[in-house]
Amino acid sequence: MDILVIIAMIIHLNNLELSPDLDYSTEARVCVQLRFKYGDHKYHSVDVVASDLYDKRVTVNVLYNLDAGKLSVLFVHVEKFLANGRANYHFHVKFTVHQPLRDQNIELQKPYDKPLYDRYSYDDGVRSLWVFSNDKPFKPDSGTRPRTEARIKRCGKTLQLRIYDGDMKYYKFDVVATDMCDKWFRLNVIHNADEGKVTVFIDGVQKFVVNDRGPGDHYFKFGAYAPLANSSNHMESRWKEIKIYKK
């Protein structure tokens, strides 16, 4: 009996074990897709396999019985789903990879005449960035507004989320969420480049979907940036547990 066994850890992929008899770059095939949607793990986009799986580690086992043409999905060693295999298709073993965020991956921009510690701190896992409306730009010859931002290298996003008077907006137009100042919230952004869609979640609830802006030079940044008009004197944002996943 030929059974392909995949063992993985979610959310951080760990202890991945694949059959030593297969070359996974060319030969491995798995006819199942397990997708996250609103915290549920689904078989493709239909059947719910397991629920409430955000922000936790769970052991996932996928057993593919090639002779019987059956797929079995187990969570924490309990079978949760059984389905027929999809024969005569070409499939590859793929998984989403967590990209670690380290200090060497971050480039910090702040008013050029200020030391970094005057506009940025990193304490107990929290990155705090602040700027004042009368600060200088990030370099002497720049005509941009004051900013203290962290730019993640080798990453880009085709979306801006800004806070105006407590409202989170897509650029300065559509309201994504309200009453967002002076509190912690969880922000998730999913960019499906194949479909050209960007989806925004606040505290696990989908709030906004928009078309991306196509190919271009984009930066993945977070921090405080003074708007063109009616800036507050002091602007600050705090961030923690930043994670990047790449498919």
TrEMBL record:
Domain of life, per lineage: Eukaryota
Domain Alginate lyase: 174-245
Residue ranges the record marks as coiled coil: none
Protein name, UniProt field: Alginate lyase 2 domain-containing protein
